Amino acid sequence: MAEALARTIAVDAMGGDKGPSAVVEGVGIALSSQGGDSLKIVLVGQKEVLEPLVRKAKLENDPRVTILHAAEVIGMDEKPIKSIKAKRDSSLVRAVELVKDGTCKAAVSCGNTGSLMACGTIKLRMMPGVERPALAAVWPSQEQHFVMLDVGANPSTKADQFVHNAVLGSHFCRLTLGRENPRVGLLSIGTEESKGHELIQAANERLKAVGDIINYVGPIEGFDVFENKVDVVLCDGFTGNVLLKTSESLFKAFRAIVKEKIMKNPIRILGALLVKGAFKDVKKHLDPDRYCGAPLLGLQGNVIKAHGSASSVAIASAIRIAGEFIEYDMTSHAESDIAKANAALAQPREAVAAEEAN
Fold it and tell me: How does the average pLDDT of the chain come out, rounded?
């Protein structure tokens, strides 16, 4: 019984572009593929909307699924702080509160990113020693996948916060991608330490100062991001969000261009049929639904942000990631390394203060 309760996940059923139906379908996929009786779901949202969808998905008699009524919905264009104050009975707020009071061990939402970040920060508070949360995303490179953060939680990242993100991102990489000693790179305009603006140069010095707490390999540039040179890419939230959305757009454009060129004549179509297996492998490798769950790292609780346009398969993927976070106990694993990193960062400052005092 204790094991079952440990994997209880609150799912905000009202957020996202595809509506509650995709969320309920995603819950059904997750329950059928991920975990027998050990996975339990609390669907949070308007009961009158969810009950017919639950019946349609044949989940109404499933003891692993319950509905918690929340009368309000936070829209995608609403202001973060204002929305969570004005709509305390929203599905997003109620889902995070279930984590706060211990009813659930994680919350999943594909709703308003800013509102989810603000709600998570206010309700769950930051992990000791961490200043700001960070959103982490998993992306494909040539041979495997890598973690990139921050992709939108904190547009104005400070130098010390890059170190916190390096620690959190390394733990997330170990959990999700199985890398024992993930290589961490700082995104800049060149690999030389003299390049980049003052913040990047300051962050580089801080990252070097923490020693072997992280496996920092130095600055990287845009050419390196998708070439399997690092396992964790560090950037500020503004840059990360732009890179994330630009990459998504590029992948879609490339797929459309390839399809258009192939369909131009019968010979190309025949050639495409001959390499159909290769195309399937490429599609699987680039599939965004595979890791559709960006955790909000640095909180004292597990909050997973799914893409606003997440499909039912993507929702199931986000639930899987939430379950992995629960089992790994991300907060406990990262806290000690955060403390060590902050202690290492404090040493040079103490030395400078002592020198100035003399």
Answer: 86
